[in-house]
Amino acid sequence: MAESATMSSIPFVWEGTDRKGQKVKGKAMAINEAAVRADLRRQGVVPTRIKKQGKKWFGGGGTITPGDISIFMRQLATMLAAGIPLVQSFEIVGTGHENPAMQKLILAVKADVEGGTALAEALAKHPLYFDDLVINLVEAGEQAGALETLLDKIATYKEKTEALKKKIKKALTYPAAVLVVAFVVTTILLIFVIPAFEDLFQGFGADLPTFTRMVIDLSVFVREAGWMIAIVIAGGISAFFYFYKRSRKMRHNLDRMMLKIPIIGPILQKAAIARYARTLSTMFAAGVPLVEALQSVAGATGNIVYEIGVLKMRDEVSTGQRLQQAMQNTDLFPNMVIQMIAVGEESGSLDEMSAKVADFYEEDVDNAVDNLSSLLEPMIMAILGVLVGGLVVAMYLPIFKMGSVI
User: Fold this and answer.
1) Taking 90 as the threshold, does the pLDDT of residue 312 lie above it?
2) What phi and psi, each to the nearest 5 degrees, are found at residue 19?
């Protein structure tokens, strides 16, 4: 009941005076204005102005991103490190958040904790935002009496994984942006520019060069059947994302294919290994048993090929197989990674060696993305130059032909 009440709360902004007569202001989540007023009076604040927080037109509207969860974990870890009680930490972080959806989520968890529910159990009620890895680590922290330390580990883990995701998105977005720009520029030329030349050429009274004729025919086709092309493209994209979300087999095949693409594939492979090593290090350092840790590690790799491989490793490890041998059986990990994990197993420092592997591959991904960006810059110029230059040459060929005749 506490959760449903909190989740129906409304964000308010208020102004008032405290016990010392100083002006104060802030934000609060409550069912109605009367509840806000009562809560402020309990805090010794005399409210002078209370109103509902207006919805923002741009940003902060109501979606919760992984970045929001990462920041929340860091804020909570910082609050506990400063000696602030858990419930009060939730209150401070929740009421001060600019995202109303995030406010509701934080204060919903706070209401459960305030009612006596364990933090891990309260977070588990929101699986869309807190995965098994976070739940397991928080539960381990509560049981060991080291919640502050484990929250700090979670915050660090989230920050590093989010930074890695941004690098991968950067690597994939750049080529896609090039193709989109090239497609848009070509379409604009075919629809608006080529027809003007076509009208001009009709008065020449001579046969047009083959290349020019082909470009004009393409322009006519795009203008006459452009709406059909747009529908087919939009339908194809929609169907792709529809089946991609619902078909695990399709995602598996696509992820496997992506790993084989030159330049992009090695970056995705390194990113998957980095996430595997980072998650394994975090879970093992928190005292989570290896077999149980591998379950969370599998889902954190970000690639179904590696997810399936890690789940097979978990099954082998559960029967007594050593981790290094299980990794070797998958054919997914470079020899260097396997050897470092082997050293970690032998020396009892698996978490430290895994962290070193993660650091190495995260830096490697960073360098690879920067190199890819440098490589693509001249490619962008070449692609746009060929497309735009080809259309321009096609339109000026008849003019050059007339000049040579004259």
Assistant:
1) yes
2) -65, -25
Strand pairing partners for 14?
Answer: 26, 50
Whether residue 126 contacts residue 41, with contact meaning beta carbons closer than 8 Å, is answered with no
**C-alpha–C-alpha distance, residues 271 and 363, integer Å:** 10
Token pair listed for 264: 């992009």
CA pair distance 277, 359, nearest whole angstrom: 9
Greatest C-alpha distance within the chain: 95
Q: Which residues contact 393 (CB under 8 A, 6 or more apart)?
A: 211
> Quick check: 1 and 9 in contact, CB under 8 A?
no
Tokens in use for 232? 């087919």
Residues 147 and 123: beta-carbon distance below 8 Å: no
Alpha helices (H) in 132-209, listed in sequence order = 132-144, 147-188, 194-201
Q: How far apart are alpha carbons 167 and 150 in whole angstroms? A: 26
Angle between helices 290-300 and 304-318 (to 10 degrees): 170
Which amino acid, 381?
Answer: M
- Please name the helix (run of DSSP H) or strand (run of DSSP E) that holds residue 19, with its range, or none: none
Question: Alpha carbon of 22 to those of 36, 48, 95: distances in Å?
Answer: 19, 12, 20
Structure tokens at 29: 């989540």
Residue 98 is given by DSSP the state S
More confident residue, 131 or 335: 335
2: confidence class by pLDDT, cuts 50, 70, 90: very low
Separation of alpha carbons 290 and 283, rounded Å: 8
pTM value > 0.85: no
3-state secondary structure of 260: coil
Q: Quick one: which of 183, 184, 190, 182 has its CA closest to 395?
A: 190
Beta-ladder partners of 30: 10
Ordered strands of the 10-17 beta sheet: 23-30, 10-17, 46-52
172, 374 in Cβ contact below 8 A?
no
DSSP β-bridge partners for residue 28: 12
CA 74 to chain centre: 18
pLDDT in tens, 142-151: 887 788 888 8
| Cβ contact 358:160 at 8 Å | yes
What amino acid occupies position 301? T
